[in-house]
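Page 37, continued from 36.
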């Protein structure tokens, strides 16, 4: 479980954070700067919650000492005054974010989820073997000896130290974020800030604010000035994931940053300078989107200075055994399955014969579930998911199936589309996508018995985003997860 250090002299805040964060993290508390720094140096933490005003030292000075100890620990400031100049100054120096007091539990958890995810991105070393056979292959997920992967490693080695925009392309789950992390870690900016933004996870107006910041009163709910990622990341590297989902208005501002390294906050009229290296990633056909008028051609050319193409796992099945070996060892340690010896040859054969539509992310989820469910020293094909074995689900006499209730009753996606067409709907695309998303989330939640953390990991999204989807889709969490019809 992730470990979080909370430094605050308010006992109520310490009690609240301990109780609120206990389900998702191990929490250490400190009432003074001195106590907090001692614990920081003697422990290993994934994030720090830091009060602005401490009795023995200013929060900004403490932040600087934290940065000196470990630049990659995300620090979240807690402040009574959300517009605190100290908090803004810290953000400009590279703090992860700040949250206003009194603390609200859900926003605090969501922010901490993002911080911990950021810690993983910037801290876990990446193994890049390339032509060096002595290089360790212990980096998380980024393993491969297939010719197509060696080409990826070589491309990273060639461009990592060059200050040019890079576009990483590939299907979902192939490891685009890991390529971005490798480019960062092997660049001359590796000691500076690395931040990641998923452009598909935020509405257009919030994405613009997330990237460029906003001034107080610039829109409804903008109660204080907010520093955007381009300011926080000054001197460092910014990873823009799902760049194809960016709105045209945001595309124009990103293009200007790429061209001039200048921008303005939302609602502001002061031009700000920044020095940021941009790494973008997408699984969408940007050239086709340009032809259809959905994407700026000039932005595509700017992003496309250097392109790294990641192959799908089905095109490098020879790497599956090495990936399985790594994920198996990782899960064995995590779940404390000390008696687990490994997979049978038959099970390995099934894994290497499957085409993995979800790519490496899906493979990792499958291995983790197999290890979690294993009761014998060796995992056999019986322990593998039905889709890997090539077994097609079908309704039995009792109507039992893995699908949600409304799918059992015949309201599957094909039936839904046909119904919408018959009714001359003008919203077929969005309604079909909404149904598909409800279906996938419901099935995964049912598979994990309602465990949101495990479901978010399998889905490849944050727990905060999953919680939002559960609420918006009215999914009922119980021993038998139900999706509304």
């Amino acid at each position: 479980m992730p470990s979080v250090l909370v430094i605050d002299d308010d006992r109520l805040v310490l009690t609240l954070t301990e109780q609120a964060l206990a389900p998702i993290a191990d929490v250490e508390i400190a009432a003074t700067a001195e106590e907090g720094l001692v614990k920081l140096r003697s422990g290993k933490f994934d994030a720090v919650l830091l009060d602005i005003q401490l009795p023995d030292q200013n929060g900004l000075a403490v932040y600087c000492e934290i940065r000196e100890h470990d630049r990659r620990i995300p620090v979240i400031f807690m402040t009574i005054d959300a517009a605190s100049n100290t908090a803004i100054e810290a953000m400009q120096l590279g703090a992860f974010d700040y949250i206003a007091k009194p603390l609200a539990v859900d926003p605090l958890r969501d922010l901490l989820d993002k911080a911990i995810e950021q810690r993983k991105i910037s801290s876990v070393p990446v193994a890049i073997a390339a032509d060096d056979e002595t290089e360790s292959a212990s980096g998380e997920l980024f393993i491969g000896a297939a010719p197509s992967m060696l080409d990826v490693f070589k491309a990273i080695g060639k461009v990592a130290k060059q200050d040019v925009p890079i576009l990483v392309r590939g299907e979902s789950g192939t490891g685009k974020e890991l390529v971005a992390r490798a480019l960062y870690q092997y660049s001359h900016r590796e000691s500076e800030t690395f931040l990641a933004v998923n452009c598909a996870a935020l509405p257009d107006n919030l994405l613009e604010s997330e990237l460029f910041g906003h001034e107080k009163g610039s829109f409804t709910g903008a109660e204080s000035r907010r520093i955007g990622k381009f300011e926080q990341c000054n001197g460092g590297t910014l990873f823009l994931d799902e760049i194809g989902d960016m709105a045209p208005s945001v595309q124009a501002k990103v293009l200007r940053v790429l061209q001039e390294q200048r921008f303005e906050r939302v609602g502001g009229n002061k031009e700000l300078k920044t020095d940021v290296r941009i790494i973008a990633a997408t699984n969408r056909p940007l050239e086709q989107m340009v032809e259809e008028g959905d994407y700026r051609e000039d932005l595509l050319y700017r992003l496309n200075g250097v392109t790294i193409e990641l192959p799908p796992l089905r095109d490098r099945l020879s790497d599956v055994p090495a990936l399985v070996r790594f994920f198996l060892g990782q899960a064995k340690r995590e779940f404390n399955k000390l008696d687990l010896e490994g997979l049978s040859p038959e099970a390995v054969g099934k894994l290497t014969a499957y085409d993995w539509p979800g790519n490496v992310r899906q493979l990792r989820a499958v291995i983790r579930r197999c290890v979690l469910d294993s009761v014998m020293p060796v995992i056999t094909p019986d322990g593998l998911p039905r889709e890997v074995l090539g077994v097609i689900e079908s309704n039995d006499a009792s109507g039992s199936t893995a699908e949600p209730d409304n799918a059992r009753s015949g309201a599957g996606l094909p039936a839904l589309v046909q119904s919408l067409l018959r009714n001359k709907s003008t919203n077929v695309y969005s309604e079909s996508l909404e149904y598909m998303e409800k279906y996938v989330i419901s099935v995964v939640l049912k598979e994990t018995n309602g465990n949101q953390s495990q479901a978010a990991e399998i889905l490849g999204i944050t727990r905060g985003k999953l919680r939002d989807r559960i609420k918006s889709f009215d999914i009922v969490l119980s021993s038998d997860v139900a999706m509304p019809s």
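The mean pLDDT is 82. Flag for discussion at group meeting. The first strand starts at residue 3 and ends at 7.
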